[in-house]
Amino acid sequence: AQSVTQLDSQVPVFEEAPVELRCNYSSSVSVYLFWYVQYPNQGLQLLLKYLSGSTLVESINGFEAEFNKSQTSFHLRKPSVHISDTAEYFCAGNTDKLIFGTGTRLQVFP
Amino acid sequence: EPEVTQTPSHQVTQMGQEVILRCVPISNHLYFYWYRQILGQKVEFLVSFYNNEISEKSEIFDDQFSVERPDGSNFTLKIRSTKLEDSAMYFCASSRGTGHQFFGPGTRLTVL
Fold first, then answer.
1. Each residue of A59-77: b (16+ CB within 10 Å) or e?
2. pLDDT > 90? residue B24
3. Residues of A with Cβ-Cβ distance to B103 under 8 angstroms
4. Which of A65, A95, B6, B36 could bond B104 through an S-S bridge, CB–CB 3.0 to 4.6 Å?
5. What torsion, rounded to 10 degrees, do the Cα atoms A37, A43, A48, A52 define?
6. How do beta strands A104-109 and A73-78 pair?
7. What is the pLDDT of residues A63-90, one digit of tens each?
8. Minimal CA separation from A36 to chain B, in Å
């Protein structure tokens, strides 16, 4: 069955600390992978995507994710988080209908 | 930058009533989608639409649901007889092809 798994439902961190949000996908999910961010009371915004090519993809606000085929992972990282990064983060995959993970709530504390 | 819009932002309805959720996809996009997110749960695929017909639907998308593209701009989701469990955030998305889907801000549906 197709699935995208986010093991961490919540990740609390202090400001300026590094963070990693984990995402694993089943091998039956086509390797188009995405991270979406949902700020409180807002819709889903694309953070970054992997379609092909370089396995390391970056967003404009300092997040990066690395596609790892052998580990079927697409973990999201940021070396130094900001209060404004507090949000729900969803990993998703597939080519047409998106299969979403259950989401990880990143809570950044001052 | 073009964006997907959805109206209304919040819809409250009585159980058994019909609701229509509206979406305006990005103008040059060809693929359209509806997803829903029950409070505290993950985003779930409902239906995809291409070339004026449903291309795929999930088991959630039963006979109570329908989609329509009545004109060149709108894409609607109709729920014929709402149930309490239909309360959720409904997201519309569109794309030019495979890859990046652009999501709207969502419509929060509350069924009383």
1. beeebebebeeeebbbbbe
2. yes
3. 36, 43-46
4. B6
5. 130
6. unpaired
7. 999 999 889 999 999 999 999 999 999 9
8. 10
